[in-house]
Amino acid sequence: MATVDIDGNDFPVYADVDFADIYLSGDAQRAVAWAARDATSKARGLISGTRLLQRLCWTDGVPSTDDPVLAAIAEATSLMAADILAKPSLGDSASTATDVKRAKAGPAEVEFFRNFESTPLPTAAWQILLDTGLLCESAGITDSSPYISGSEYPSRFDPDFDDISDDPALGSYWYG
């Protein structure tokens, strides 16, 4: 079992500081910032990364920190630790979701709501875990299709739109 020590307290983690130091030393984006952190900060990042990963939907239940874990889980934990230390708000919600409501350019303005496809973790860590096949199929991925309030019929702008103007059930709904 991997653990990290903070003030004499052992915390179970998926990757210890030694593993994370080696793994992240080869990461072009995270190596310098990770190396500059002290051992306690690194330990806190690994604890936060482990806790965040434990909130995901796993096919066979949450992996135990008591058993040896796959290298992929330790790698994802290391990436999450580095990312959380760089941007602490990721520890609360690492989702990559983004919502666009309004776009404006000069006098033209469009307001809409579209939830873009997102994952519950930053892309690098998410992809490592996704490749293991250990996550539930819908482990936090949100649909990228737009939501239109009150829409009961397909959009005429949809590439899969079937011209249903001959459907008497719809009558003048489409063509007034």
Name its key features.
176 residues, alpha+beta, two-stranded antiparallel sheet, 5 helices, 14% strand, globular, disordered C terminus
Description:
This protein has 176 residues and is an alpha+beta fold. Helices cover 32% and strands 14% of the residues. The protein has five helices and four strands. Helix 1 packs across helix 4 and helix 3 (39-54) crosses helix 4. Residues 94-98, 142-153 and 170-176 have low confidence and may be disordered.
Shape: globular
N- to C-terminal separation? 69 Å
**Largest sheet geometry:** 2 strands, antiparallel
* Contiguous uncertain segments of 5+ residues: 94-98, 142-153, 170-176
Gyration radius over CA? 23 Å
Number of helices: 5
Describe the secondary-structure layout.
Elements lengths: L1 E5 L2 E5 L3 H9 L5 H5 L3 H16 L16 H16 L12 E7 L2 E8 L7 H10 L44
Antiparallel strand pairs: 1-2, 3-4
Structure, briefly:
This protein is α+β, with helices and mostly antiparallel strands and 176 residues long.
